[in-house]
Description:
The chain is α/β, with parallel strands linked by helices. The protein has helices spanning about 10-20, 25-35, 60, 70-85, 95-110, 120-140, 160-165, 190-195, 200-220, 245-255, 275-280, 305-320, 335-350, 350-370, 405-415, 440-460, and strands at about 40, 45-50, 55, 115-120, 145-150, 180-185, 225-230, 260, 285-290, 300-305, 375-380, 385-390, 420, 420-425, 425-430.
Amino acid sequence: MPPPPPPPLSNLATRDVETFVPPYTHLAGFRDTGPLILERGRGVHVYDTEGKAYIEGMAGLWCTALGYGNEELVEAAAAQMRKLSFAHLFTGKSHDPAIELAEKLKEMAPVPISKVFFCASGSEANDSQIKLVWYLNNALGRPKKKKIVSRIKAYHGVTIAAASLTGLAANHRDFDLPLPGFLHTACPHHYRGAQDGESEEQFAARLAAELDALIEKEGPETVAAFIAEPVMGAGGVIVPPRSYFEKIAPICTKHDVFMISDEVITGFGRLGTMFGCEKLHFHPHAISIAKQLSSAYLPIAGVMVPEQVYQALLSESRKIGVFAHGFTYGGHPVSAAVALKAIEIYLRDRIVEKAAEQAARFQARLAALNAHALVGEARGLGLIGGVELVADKRSKRSFVPQHGVGAKAVQFAEHEGLIVRAVLGDVLTLCPPLIINAAQIDELFDRLVRALDKTLDWVTRERLAHS
Ligand SMILES: Cc1ncc(COP(=O)(O)O)c(C=O)c1O
């Protein structure tokens, strides 16, 4: 029997489907399913237009660290809007919130930082990183040193250069990307990438050797930078093997390759340390920040660069004149005021330390999912996790992508009152607000287990594990 037709969409859902192009959406399927329309939020919960409550298990898009309805953040925005609703940082203009925020970020940075360049999104931050590295190498008189290395399954954004860094096929295919000069080295995923019997340390050593070989093959004089997320997010929450960055960093040093940590997800406490590179034990030259910087109450992002880059900008300016890069909304005063307040709360309320404490429970409940018949690997660090669904646990065989097993699990989770996301390879991602408490972590996982059980029933009924 053919499946029953989907129920008709509500009026609001129909207006949605007929009016805008939703980002990161299966556009064809979406015409039948329509959107989940959210109306309000409080703490770790969001509520749809019917009043149904959900635990926001993804903190929006890895960003609402302080949850919803935080009156201090609302007040910081309102006060700044009343005082000075907009001012820019172009052509010698400035404003208090940006100055104070840059000072605070320099103080907090895990490595020596000379200056902060503000923008409004993670993609803009990573695009800016590339342009600054190119500028740096022109200033240093090495115009051939321009290639950028990122990793397969990395996610660095969607603008043309950032999407070129991103190592996911869907971000390249039919977008005519990546641009030339963007290279992708192996993904540091032990579960999928390790050889039989290879330990995490051995796997890390092999990946470092591969990076070394890639740079040698391209010519070190042509390779400018290496960029990495401390823990990969949108690529499926991939925690690198033990000692990975300790082995990668010397390769970058050996070839004079600038190292960028993309902390758009991991910055401001996600892994239980203020910055992810602290948890993963490496010292990047530059850092990209966004998302939790303002707890996503308003868009703001930035690039934190060392003195070496600033000196290059100065020397280029002496040659060219104006540093011709900047975004209208970079360092927007209202966003900056909110970011300052968010940082004040992170420090005052020990949000990062508390997240580190809760991480033990979160990771224990996550690890327990490894026993589930559908789960190939449940992995994570701090308050982030990925649950990879497989058709066959023993052989690690994935489901056929067209069956949409991950997407179905997301639907079952939503029925249970839990928002999670499915990314490539049927990986369910979890990234709750950092303010989540022990009881809410338990509730999150109880709901997820029920959703996995229902997904397993459905997979069995439809015989999807065998195709
Ligand atoms: C690690 C990382 N870098 C960059 C980006 C891009 O940020 P945006 O969507 O704000 O452009 C993201 C978005 O999820 C991200 O996870």
